[in-house]
User: What shape does this take?
Amino acid sequence: MSTSPAGDPVVGQVIKGRYRVLRKLGEGGMGAVYLADQLSISRKVALKVLHREFTRDHEFVQRFHQEARLAAALNHPAITTVFDFDQGEDGSLFIVMEYLEGTLLSEVIRRDGALDVGRAVRLGVQIADGLGAAHAAGVIHRDVKPQNIMVLTPGDRVKLMDFGIARMGDTGAAHLTRAGALMGTPHYMAPEQIEGRPITVKTDIYAFGVVLYEMLTGTTPFNAPTSTAVLTKQLREPPAPLRRVRPEVSPLVEQVVMQALEKEPEWRQENMGDLARRLRAVGGLPAGSPPLSVAAPAPAIAPSPPAAPGPQVAMPTMVSTPTPEAPMESMRTIVSVPTMVSRPMAPSSSPEQQAPVAPSGTKKPAWARLKGSSAKLAAVVAGIGLLTAGTMAIALHVGGRPSPVVAGPHVEKPSVDPAPTTVPAPPRLVVPPPHRDRVKQPPAKP
Assistant: This one.
């Protein structure tokens, strides 16, 4: 952990007669975090102190106080505990939190690259459980990312941190933290968050899907030199299928991750509890808390180069063990609304939540199209074998936008089978196009 710079006036102070500041742990754009001794019970705590210049900004003060109130209302092993909120003798505002020893998940990924699949699933279940507890209390985090997740040592347990832009869930439009600006981190922002549409628990599900993808591949799904370019990709481009980047990931794990990354909220998992249950199932974990691994396995994929930094540094709630200096990636960014990118909005449809078959005339969600790939391949191979007898023709539709898309390989058969006097008409096998576009398309015109 970092040590205090010489001459830091806060170090050595006893704040409010209760907290003796021992050393600085880290600093960000909004404030600094210090290790302190709670004198009354001799307990080590972390003090998050807002920079003095922000104490005159009513909006920042409100957001700082909101973080303390929301986090203090949450009681879960995967959420950092908040003990107190107060104002020092010099007017500075501070939050008192539990002191954690570990490493930020972002640093783990930067150092090790892609995580072992089993470890990524175990960590993912814990993160999903913590977010599910927050959602059950009516709190949407809105800034889920590896920089806000601490991996504790020993035990490989996780702690969610930094509820600085969290808010109580509702059905209203996305909250503007400043006039004409949205707060978030471009690499982890859901399309509806970028567009200023209502924020729901599914906004956190999308960001968590990005975190899962990053843990399993060592990189985020969308990367570009500028924040605006990243936001454009979030809106308009499908992520590369997980198994194309990491072939050893099972199809079931891939399906969970890719469903969380659907552009349209209604095509993602129903809630965080649903996502956690599916992760447990595909990872072979028990229904209760996931087993904790003591030693982390070796990385499976080499680390990817860090993405270009954004325009504003987000201060981590807690501080991790030291790692070599590296450019900070995917910083929280204040995005100006007039420069926001947009995508054409397609008419809404209502696909079934669980069934992998799309309604007639609509395009299936991308995660569902992944499920039948093995069966489709087998059907194509079988059809090609029949060509040698000259009794079957296969139509392969591999380009453009089909209308409609057939849910799976479909062979038309006659209703009765009388002895033919002529060669029967060949069955027609239609194969859906390769997985390319995750943006929901309108139903085809008749």
User: Anything to note?
Assistant: Residues 351-414+423-446 form one domain. The chain has three domains: 14-98, 102-339, 351-414+423-446.
